[in-house]
Amino acid sequence: xxxxxxxxxxxxxxxxxxxxxxxxxxxxxxxxxxxxxxxxxxxxxxxxxxxxxxxxxxxxxxxxxxxxxxxxxxxxxxxxxxxxxxxxxxxxxxxxxxxxxxxxxxxxxxxxxxxxxxxxxxxxxxxxxxxxxxxxxxxxxxxxxxxxxxxxxxxxxxxxxxxxxxxxxxxxxxxxxxxxxxxxxxxxxxxxxxxxxxxxxxxxxxxxxxxxxxxxxxxxxxxxxxxxxxxxxxxxxxxxxxxxxxxxxxxxxxxxxxxxxxxxxxxxxxxxxxxxxxxxxxxxxxxxxxxxxxxxxxxxxxxxxxxxxxxxxxxxxxxxxxxxxxxxxxxxxxxxxxxxxxxxxxxxxxxxxxxxxxxxxxxxxxxxxxxxxxxxxxxxxxxxxxxxxxxxxxxxxxxxxxxxxxxxxx
Length: 410
Fold this sequence. Notes:
This protein has 410 residues and is of the alpha/beta class.
C-alpha cells in the first residue's frame, strides 16, 4: 500500500464539512460596502489635504524669518520687551518705536538715546551712520561683529550671578543679575557687573561725546524674565536716564544686505504657475468625480466552476505523497478512524483518542493501553511504519463493525 492510497482514504471525512460555494457567495453579498458618494468624498478630502500642505510649505519657504520678535517693545509675547518699555514710560521717559533707519535718524534729537538689538540686516557702514546721530547708544543684544566694530573688547567666560561692581550711580541699587554673556573690556572701556575672573557683563564706553552701553539682555529684559532678580532695575538704569528713547526694531526689508540675499521661492516662481496648478487640481477633482460615477457597489456572483471534494482529496493526497510526510499522513488516517469509530460507538464527534480507545476496548474486550497507542501514539517515521499503522487501524475498524453488527443482531 502506498502513501498516496492511504492519504486518499483518510481525507474524505475532513472535506465533508467544507462550506459550499453558494453559502460563501451569500455571506459575501451580505457584507455592506461603501457607496460611490463615500468614495468620491474621500478622494476630495485627500486632494484638499494635499493642497493645504502644499500651500503651507510654500508659505514657510517663501516667508523671511521675522527679526522684530527679539526684545520687541510692542510685543507682549514671552520673548518681547513690552513690559520694560511700559516701565520706562512710567518713569517719565518717552519711548518712540521706529522700524526703519530713516525714521530712527529723523526721531533722534539732542540728548536722545538710541536702543536696538543686534542689527544683523545692516552693513557696518549703515550701523555707523545710524548710531552717529545718537548721544547715547544702548545695544541690548550682542554679537562678535558689533563687539569688534565698536572696539569694545572681546568675549569671555565665567557666567553666573553678578553685581554692579562699578562706580556708575545708576547701577548702585540694581542688585544681582544672572549674566547671559561676559566680556573682557578693551582699553578705555569700563566694565560693570564683573565676575570672579574679571569679565564684565556690561561694557560702557565714551566715544566722541556719545556713550555706548553694550550688554546681552535678550533674556533678562524679556517679558518672561523681567521680574527675576534685579532685571527690572537694570532695565530702568539702562533706558530711563534720558527724556527721549528711540527704540529701533530692525527688519530684513530695512537692511542693505537684502540686495545681496538670494531670491526667495516666491520671487523665482513665474506668475502663470499658480493658476496652472489650480487648474490642474480642479481638472483632477473633476476626473475623480467622473470616473467615480461609473462604478457602482460590488455584486457578489457564484463561482462558475464547482470543485468536487474528491478532487481536493486526491490533490492533497498527491502533495502529501510527494513531500514523503509520513507523520502528516498518519495524523490524517488516525483522525478519519477516530471519527468513524466515534460514530459506530455512539460518541460525540469531538471525542478524544483516549475516549474512543476506551469505548472500543470495552466493546471488543481488549486492553486499553494498546488502543491508546494505536489511536494517539507516536507518529511513524517512514512508509513501512505508516503502512503497518494503516493496516492495524483498518483491522480495528473491521473488528468494531463486526462487534456492532453482532450486538444489534436479533
